[in-house]
Amino acid sequence: MTGAGPGVLTVANQKGGVGKTTTTVNLAAALTHMENRVLVVDLDSSSTATAVLLGVDADVKHTVDDVLAPNGSLRPEDARAAVVPSRWPGVDVLPSDFSLAERDQDGDVLQERLGTALGHLEEYDWALIDAPPHLGRLLGSAVLASDSVLLVTEPAAVSFYGLAHLRRTMHAIGEGYGHRVDIAGIAVNKVQTGTVAHRAALRRLWEEHGDHILGLIPQRVPIAEALNSGVSLYALASTSRGRSAAMLAQEYEHLAARLIGLPAPPVALPFDTSEAARAAESDAS
Ligand SMILES: Nc1ncnc2c1ncn2[C@@H]1O[C@H](COP(=O)(O)OP(=O)(O)OP(=O)(O)O)[C@@H](O)[C@H]1O
Ligand SMILES: [Mg+2]
User: Fold this and answer.
1) pTM of the entire predicted model
2) How many C-beta neighbours within 10 Å does residue 264 have?
């Protein structure tokens, strides 16, 4: 964490649809469950996180764009005026709307505003930024405002290609501004360990990124259902999906714990990752 503001984590991948928003909001719920005060910053003009957390017809007075736009109606120091409580207990949100798309074109003035704004929201322990699915100025702003970045990927080669490039880009953005951003790790989403293809993809990811893998989130109906109905997994507890939802909520708690350095069980990769297995493999090759 830097300064008096919250610890800031960006959830990113330039590839669309891999589960950035799903991971952001479920991590927010998990961190709240672990007694943290959490703000979700929706930095995507498609506003999925805003819709999930506030409802599709939410009528908000201000959005993050009012803070980031060069002639916006709020100074970054006054970002609190744009923060609203969400429908998810304990989670607040700095919402977005489509106007945010214009900020990807703006000049350098925008880049440090987000960090300034979040630095003034010292009532939160964590701010989670849901990043847009492309490398633009908004993602640059998110990186500059962040202490660390969580990369989200699906267990498929096509989703991995961009990871190394994204890691390099993030470091380059940070270095350009003298800001050190830490890649916290990788969350692999929509995992089906029963399939040969996913096991092979996970093995390859492990060989390339090893200890950076912080969590495997399975592909499960309650996750999609919770997101689509705008409720957290905890809120599904009393439904027929309650048992499965509770187990999935716990997966996000483990991911959250690994991210913030609290004890958590090791990531359950579907193959032997012991030193002995590594040694046997290098002997064989
Ligand atoms: N673990 C999961 N199990 C089942 N469905 C999932 C899971 N993760 C995400 N989904 C579904 O996949 C879709 C895409 O997820 P999400 O919106 O979180 O991706 P995204 O990376 O934020 O997309 P975008 O790049 O458009 O912002 C959603 O319909 C969501 O419900
Ligand atoms: Mg999204």
Assistant:
1) 0.95
2) 16
For 178-187, the pLDDT digits (tens) are 888 889 999 9
Q: What angle do CA 84, 89, 92 make, to 5 degrees?
A: 25
Check pLDDT > 70 for residue 252.
Answer: yes
Look up residue 115 and give its two tokens. 């960090």
| 65-108 pLDDT per residue, tens | 999 998 899 999 999 999 999 999 999 999 999 999 988 877 66
Closest approach atom of ligand 1 to CA 248: 1
Q: Side-chain half-sphere of 26: how many Cα atoms within 13 Å? A: 30
CA-nearest residue, atom 16 of ligand 1:
19
Tell me how far apart the alpha carbons of residues 215 and 186 are, in angstroms, rounded to a whole number. Answer: 7
Residue in this structure with the two tokens 């989403």, named with its chain if needed: 189
- Three-class secondary structure assignment of 65-96: HHHHCCCCCCCHHHHHHHCEECCCCCEEEECC
d(CA 87, CA 71): 30
Contact 93, 40 (CB under 8 A): yes
CATH of span 7-284:
3.40.50.300
**Ligand 1 atom 11 nearest Cα:** 224
**Other Cβ atoms within 10 Å of 49 Cβ, number:** 29
| pLDDT recorded at residue 253 | 98
In sequence order, the β-bridge partners of residue 42 are 130
Q: List ligand 1's pocket residues with C-beta within 6 A.
A: 16-22, 44, 48, 133, 189-190, 217, 219-220, 223-224, 227
pLDDT, tens digit, 9 for 90 and up, residues 254-277 = 999 999 999 999 999 999 888 656
